[in-house]
Amino acid sequence: MAKYTVFLTEPEALDVDIVGKEAHQLHLLLENAVRVPDGFVVTADTLHDFLETSGAGAKLAHLFSADLPEERGLEIISRQAVETVLGSEMSWDIEAGIIGAYEHLARQQSVGAPKVSVPVSVAFHPDRFPYFADTFERRATVHDRHDLDKAVKEAWASLYTPESLRFFNSIGWDLEDVRASVLVQHNIAPEASGVAFTVPDEEGGHDMMIKAVLGSAMALEKGIVEPDTYRVD
User: Fold this and answer.
1) Closest by alpha carbon to 191, among 212, 221, 220?
2) Could you give the 3-state DSSP secondary structure of residue 172?
3) Residue 29: enclosing H or E segment and its boundaries?
């Protein structure tokens, strides 16, 4: 059976082309002894296999065989593409691989049915384009194994929302350029959360900018609250 999943602790999680940017960064945090909730990745190759075995890939290729149309037409194509992904059956071996990884995660957590978040983790092949996490709809929350295959397909389908298509079109989008994995990670209730990123400083180097909020970072991602902001030399 093909390997459809990679745990964040496994060496394969170093490969952005397999696990996507977000999962790769989580693996690096683990390597540096930073505490990260347990999880695994449904690999980018799994999406390729799903599209091929379900017939969805041929339907999507037909939809995107011409240049993307104007706004109204784009909305129609987007809806058809999303429906194609969500309406296609996942093969038994792919579903079994994903459920098997979830059950292994449950044993790690000593929990019968761990609550997990299921965002998409994208890499552009072969590193031609920047990565913008906020472009994609994300983070379904699953409470047991029965909804997991649906959540994974929803993550894949987020590649074909109008927002995603506009972004891809703006950077010279091609179907073959996009490789998307799905991160399945134990969902915890944080006391505080946030994001950290680098920004140029006045001397030509980089400082670290940290934006933090109480509770979940979802409020920060959606712009609902004003974060505490710190700049570190």
Assistant:
1) 212
2) coil
3) helix 16-31
Neighbours of 4 (CB within 10 A): 23
Q: How far apart are CA 175 and CA 65, in angstroms?
A: 10
Report whether pLDDT(10) > 90: yes
Q: Which fold has domain 5-186?
A: Dna Ligase; domain 1 (3.30.1490)
Residues 84-136: pLDDT tens digits? Answer: 999 999 999 999 999 999 999 999 887 788 889 898 887 754 444 444 444 45
Residue 48 is which amino acid? H
d(CA 57, CA 91): 14
CA distances from 27 to 20, 128, 175 (A): 11, 22, 27
d(CA 75, CA 152): 22
Please state the domain extents for the chain.
5-186, 192-232
Q: By the 8 A CB rule, do 88 and 56 touch?
A: yes
Q: Under DSSP, is residue 6 helix (H, G, I), strand (E, B) or coil?
A: strand
Helix (H) or strand (E) holding 49: helix 44-54
Rounded distance between C-alpha atoms, residue 142 and residue 117, angstroms: 6
